[in-house]
Amino acid sequence: MNLLVDYHIHTNHSIDGEMTIDEACIKAINLGIKEIAFTDHIDLDWPDPEFDFDTIDLEKYFTDIEKNKTKYKGQLKIKAGIEIGLQPHVLNETAKIIEDYPFDFVIGSVHIIQRMDPYRGKYYIGKTKEEIYRLYYEETLRLIEDFSHFDVLGHIGYIKRYSPLPYKKEDELLHLDLIDEIFKVLIKKGKGIEVNTSGYRHISNCPMPPLELIMRYRELGGNIITLGSDSHKLDDFGFGLKSGLETIMQAGFDQITTFSNRKPYFHRIRKKE
């Protein structure tokens, strides 16, 4: 049986999370998930005053995780992770947080482009689809070149999630030259990608990134790959993980990655006979 994990989970320690750590652990056990990583948000200097992604009580967060590690010992492996939002002007401050706390796993994600939050829609105004994607990938490339305090790059292709323009499958393959450069930087730095199954809950009905880009990452030499639901509420916890794992195998991978103390561990996976 393949190891089923969820390495992208948000709880009520994040401003946008609705479930408790205990609730997530119970559901993981009920779903047969063997290992999870909590990855609540830190996005310093978020431009939208309605959301305070800067603030998380990390002492309370770690205490809650440790309490549940003890409670569910022998039933579930629990890792303390974080999802950090990357912006050019807060990289040093973000790095200090990562250095100061004993995270097992760090997702680096691009949520803000040119000080605009795509969730609000302003980012898309006056831009063609080509520009929407190009600016996102250019910003991502610059950030991962300048920053190394993360383990995997989160939800590649995130920009499609809130786009008001009609979605087409070929949108995923815009700017393959930039995507290749992103993958090459990640591989050179010993970083990985995640297969984010929240895409199955949105218009594209495929993970982020899609199969074609996962295959390209592998072709270029990538080997670190995690799997996560990017859930913020209990109903979405674990959603699409089995499909995501099938996609990873379809892309040619025979292993999946977990982390402990920021060190990757590889677990063999195989297709059913």
Concise synopsis of the structure shown:
The chain is an alpha/beta fold. The protein has helices spanning 21-31, 58-71, 91-100, 129-146, 176-188, 211-219, 241-250; strands at 5-9, 35-42, 77-85, 105-109, 152-153, 192-196, 225-228, 255-260, 263-268.
What is the second-level CATH architecture?
Answer: Alpha-Beta Barrel
Q: What is the mean predicted local confidence, pLDDT?
A: 94
What's the CATH H-level homologous superfamily? Metal-dependent hydrolases
CATH topology grouping: TIM Barrel
Number of helices: 7
Folded structure, characterized:
- Helix 4 packs parallel to helix 5.
- Helix content is 31%, strand content 18%.
- Helix 4 links the parallel strand 4 and strand 5 (152-153).
- It has a single domain, classed as TIM Barrel (Alpha-Beta Barrel), CATH 3.20.20.140.
- The strands form two sheets. The protein has a seven-stranded parallel sheet. A two-stranded antiparallel sheet has the order 8-9.
- It is α/β, with parallel strands linked by helices.
Q: Characteristics of this structure?
A:
273 residues; alpha/beta; TIM Barrel; 7-stranded parallel beta sheet; 18% strand
What secondary-structure arrangement, pairings included, does this model have?
Elements: E1 5-9, H1 21-31, E2 35-42, H2 58-71, E3 77-85, H3 91-100, E4 105-109, H4 129-146, E5 152-153, H5 176-188, E6 192-196, H6 211-219, E7 225-228, H7 241-250, E8 255-260, E9 263-268
Parallel strand pairs: 1-2, 2-3, 3-4, 4-5, 5-6, 6-7
Antiparallel strand pairs: 8-9
Helix pairs in contact: 4-5
